[in-house]
Specification:
homodimer; alpha/beta
Amino acid sequence: MADQKSTNITWHHGKISKEDREKLTGQKGVTIWLTGLSGSGKSTIAVELEHALMDNKHQAYILDGDNVRHGLNKNLGFSPEDRTENIRRIGEVSKLFTEANLIAITAFISPYKNDRDDVRALLGEGEFIEVYVKCSLEECEKRDTKGLYKKARAGEIPEFTGISAPYEEPDKAEIVINTDELSVEESTRAILGYLEEKGYITL
Amino acid sequence: MADQKSTNITWHHGKISKEDREKLTGQKGVTIWLTGLSGSGKSTIAVELEHALMDNKHQAYILDGDNVRHGLNKNLGFSPEDRTENIRRIGEVSKLFTEANLIAITAFISPYKNDRDDVRALLGEGEFIEVYVKCSLEECEKRDTKGLYKKARAGEIPEFTGISAPYEEPDKAEIVINTDELSVEESTRAILGYLEEKGYITL
């Protein structure tokens, strides 16, 4: 057993309250749910936003394909059923991060309205901010950052959102960002401004 | 679009580094994996540990049956296969929390050695601390805090760990806590002492 060196410990039972966590971290836990077509700019905005938050001493964490599709959800495919379970699990993990008082930023196409609404219902009032990263299919296809649209048009990728699978636009997103027109910096500032205005963070 | 009020923003791309997160939070992310029989004291120690960490300005979050079994893993049962998937998902979520630089405390029986070793392998060197909350079956059954042993003995709960399903003891746990003998406070101090000694936290 390790030596006991600590003195600043008081023993009290029960769970930590939301208020205690907010006091310790100087922020309110929340899930920022970025949704939009492939190539609309979700991941780029997520990375920029995380950096801007950290620069201002706020703690954020990005959930995206890199760390979720290859980890927690590696046993899921791209059928409608699996897409729904994919989003359900991401929603549950976002909820845990939000309860832990972090700013969870998710960057997934999340094409189905019902799936996104289920996540909204899972989280508490004011804990879910839906951000529609809106970009025309034409522009996304022109960018084709990952070369996926070309493959989808060639029929090499089945059920590709926007081409051979639907994208259901949000109708009550807290924030809509038109990346046909706004730069990454402008997009990020829009989200930061909202977070500050609503009292989630202090800039 | 919300007004722009922020000034302290520099634009730079790329992911946040582990070092940046450690600097901001004054701690190292890690998963503290409590394993042991039902009634051994895992949850009680988890709650006490989380409080002691928060009192010392450290950020921890408990993953337990309450928030995982009824959320992320609500579509899993108690067959050996489902138990393995249960632990796999918890391991993946712990990894995300650890990457986010939190101290993740898990409180699950996690009876299979292989499952626990898989989680260990998932996490980086020094990011997984296995804590064997060791308590004799006799003592656990005597406590029977939730009345589960009585039901298991009556055959009302199939595959109950320690009675009708195996518990495989850890053979390389970083910390072993004998709760037949140690109080909750003593148990918590042992873990805190280890975390401080190894540089995860400052008390």
